[in-house]
Amino acid sequence: MSESSIRRLLAEQHPVAADIRQIAADAGLDVGRIVFQGSAENMWFNVLEEAAKHRSVDRILQAARSAAALRVHTAVILTALEVEYQAVRSHLGEIQERTHLGTVYETGRFPAAAPIWRVSVAEIGPHNPGAASAAERALSYFKPSVILLVGIAGGLKDVAIGDVVCATKVYGYESGKETPDGFRPRPIVFNTSAALLSRARAEKRRWNREARALSVLTTFRVFDGPIAAGEKVVASSLSSTAILLRENYSDALAVEMEGVGFLAAAHASQAACMVIRGISDLLDRKSEADAIGSQEIASHNAALIAFRMLAGLGRGRADDPSSAD
User: Taking the domain 73-324, which CATH number applies?
Assistant: First the structure.
C-alpha cells in the first residue's frame, strides 16, 4: 500500500486531532514536535513524517489499529431546526465540518475527556420525507451504530413544557382511508430499537430519581411512550388533527413532523434508532410558549437526555447497541 493510501485510510479511521495526537503518543513519539492542524490527512502526514525519522512507522500503525479496536461507536444525530442543532452541538468537542451529497455535518467527540463516541450532527429541516432522505444519506455515509432524531414536539397528554419523551414507537397518523363516513386511520407504526429503549428507560429512572431530590420548579421529567408524526403543525387542541389524535392515538404523548420518515429509513439499516423529543408547547398558546424560550428549553433537555443515553451505552459495553434491534 502506498504512503498516500495509508494516510487516507488512517484519516478515515481517525479523523479527530485529539485521537491522532493520542495515537502518536502511544507509539512513543514526541507530540510536541508534531503539528496537529489542518485536515486529517495533513495531520497524519506530519505524524508519519516524524515517525519515519525514528523508524517507528510500524509502531504508529500498531497504535492506530489498537485505537480502532478499542473505539466504541459512531453516532449520528439529526435535527430539524437550528435551535435543536445548537443544543446537540454544545455537547461536542473537537468539532470538524464534513459535507456529503450536499448535506453539511459537524462531527465531534463525546465526552470531551475520552473518545468514547464520535457524533455527527446535521440540521435537516422539517417534514417526514426530508427526514427519511437525510437519514438514508447519513446512514450510508457514516454507517453509525446509533442514529437519533432529537428535537422538540407538542405535548398531547401527561407532559409539561420542558419534559422529554423517548419514543417507544412513532405513529404515522395521516395514513388512512377517506370514506363517506369520514377518515378511517390506518396508521404506519415504527418501533424504537430494543437496546436504545432499554437504555432510555434506565436513564429515565435515573433522571427522575434525581429530579425528585430537587424542586419540581427547577427540573423536568423524562417519559417513554408513543409519539405521533404527520405533516401538520398542530397549534390548537380543538383542531381536527388534535381531535383525531385523541380519538385514535390516545396513548401518544407528543406530536411532531419527522419521526415516521426518520424511522422508516433507519429500520432499513443495521443502526439502532430512536426519536427523542423535548416538549416545547401543549398545542394551545404555542406562540406564547415559543416567545418565552420554550423551544430552547425543550431542545436543551432533549439533547441532554440523548447524550446521557450515549454515555450509558458507552459505560462498560463491548457489545454493539444495534445488535439488539
Answer: 3.40.50.1580
Above 50 in pLDDT, residue 236? Answer: yes
Q: Which pLDDT does position 320 carry in this prediction?
A: 46
Domain limits, the chain: 3-70, 73-324
* pLDDT, tens only, 160-194: 999 999 999 999 998 888 888 878 888 899 999 99
Over the stretch 247-305, which tens digit does the pLDDT of each residue have? 999 999 999 999 999 999 999 988 899 999 999 999 998 889 999 999 999 999 999 99
Q: Return phi, psi of residue 226, to 5°.
A: -70, 155
Q: How deeply is 203 buried, as exposed, middle or buried, from its count of CB atoms within 10 A (0-12, 13-18, 19+)?
A: buried
End-to-end CA distance of the chain: 37
